[in-house]
Amino acid sequence: MLDRIKPMENLNKFYIDGAWITPQSRQMFAVLNPTTEQQLGEIVLGNSDDVDFAVAAANRAFETYSRTSKEHRLELLENLLEVTEKHLEELAQAMTLEMGAPITMSREAQADAAVGHLVAYIEAFKAQHQRNVLANADTLLYEPIGVCGLITPWNWPINQIALKVIPALATGCTCILKPSEHTPISATVYAQIIHEAGYPAGVFNLVQGDGPSVGSALSCHPDVQMMSFTGSTRAGKAITRDAADTVKRVTLELGGKSPNLVFADCDLEARVTASVLECFYNTGQSCDAPTRMLVERSCYDQTLEIAWRVAMDQAVGDPCQEGDHIGPLFDQIQFDRVQALIKVGIDEGARVLCGGAGKPEGLETGWFVRPTIFVDVTDTMRVTREEIFGPVLVIMPFDDEAEAIKLANDTSYGLAAYLQTGDADRAERVAAQLKAGAVHINGGEFNYGSPFGGYRQSGNGREGGIQGLEDYQEIKTLHFG
Ligand SMILES: NC(=O)c1ccc[n+]([C@@H]2O[C@H](COP(=O)([O-])OP(=O)(O)OC[C@H]3O[C@@H](n4cnc5c(N)ncnc54)[C@H](O)[C@@H]3O)[C@@H](O)[C@H]2O)c1
Description:
Blueprint: E1 14-16, E2 19-21, E3 28-32, E4 39-44, H1 48-65, H2 70-86, H3 88-99, H4 103-127, E5 131-133, E6 139-144, E7 147-151, H5 157-171, E8 174-178, H6 184-197, E9 204-206, H7 211-220, E10 226-230, H8 233-244, E11 249-253, E12 259-262, H9 268-280, E13 292-296, H10 300-313, H11 332-348, E14 351-354, E15 372-375, H12 382-385, E16 392-398, H13 401-409, E17 416-420, H14 424-433, E18 438-441, E19 459-460, H15 465-470, E20 473-478
Helix pairs in contact: 1-7, 2-4, 2-5, 2-6, 3-4, 3-6, 4-5, 7-8, 9-10
Bound molecules: nicotinamide-adenine-dinucleotide (NAD).
Protein name: Aldehyde dehydrogenase family protein
Pfam families: Aldedh
Organism: Candidatus Seongchinamella marina
């Protein structure tokens, strides 16, 4: 009989130096269920004393853990894989409760990421040479950078935790994780998984808290060598400023407003259907969602018909029920933000094809929103330029390939781009000109093990693959006499 993890028992504690401890701070924060709006529990928002305590533990552990062999760390990662697989259901249930991911997608995508990224990172770590001899006979050593501060958001909680914690542990770094204060339950489950996998005390530490307290204390800390952050561009800039005085490495995965170029020569019915569903997936709370659809004018009207049908069929409902419906937004803050931007779109003169402000009928409790499509938008409207982070799609026409590329790149972001065309030469030609860290062609999906990250204000650094490991490493050059 499997021992289930009971995260609520440790929700108001921090995992530091291998044990669940009572925090120094006494500031409490209510964790809410976005479906019922009821309180699930409380966490303590840590303070700088809690951060100092965790950093000291990570610093002590680094002395020995950083010198362990690659084989030893691979063995620990294999243990982690075995334990993670045992506890996937607890991870999935935690995310359904705390951020409203429908249970089917919570199992198949949100929790699955803990295993998918781990398997891919084990392969990347096996393939990486920690010692390389150059043609000039100098030797490069890849060494762990040190104590890492890891700050994650609420929208793909375990995906982001796995993308940061696993490369830190693989490369011999020690770390302090500060998950989003809105999704502390899945992070507590994950900490218990790491404990069960047998990691030495102090290698992984969990401090709950908000950005201005724990997040900033980590970013400023002189004994933290690197910050890895996923979240808004606003917070990414704040972390970069906080980290400047200690000149630590900062890697950022930020927001996006990803364009989706639809050419008339694609399989229009299939590609538009999939594109609309992808925009609404996770209730639109994905940084790389295809939120800006640019459509060749000759197939614009037909595209709107297909998009309308798909959006009208998009079910919204209780995330505890199995199925492919979408759930609520994660919090009242996000609900208010999405409602405000829908109103902005209407005021700016964008035409509402379907959806609009307010809640879907019958879902008055919970932060549910109506899947919404704005059409005939212009490039200067706020709904076209700003990340809405809800199930809101904007659609605009273009006349030729050059205009499509110009519109696609007319954004401060550059995380992902999407391309629908039946012409393979065009796909290569256009993809080469898009300023984005990933281009998805005709439904090509992200695969675990590939690097993920953005151009421009969508961030720097790459998570996943050997590139993801290198972010946590220093390169030392040996010059032999
Ligand atoms: N590029 C990616 O891989 C990726 C993935 C997921 C989410 N995101 C982005 O994240 C955003 C949504 O997440 P959010 O609303 O939680 O964003 P957020 O930036 O407010 O919060 C993210 C994390 O940063 C912390 N934080 C906030 N202010 C901070 C500060 N000043 N110093 C240190 N830490 C701070 C929060 O406590 C939380 O843990 C969206 O913009 C989305 O596009 C990007």
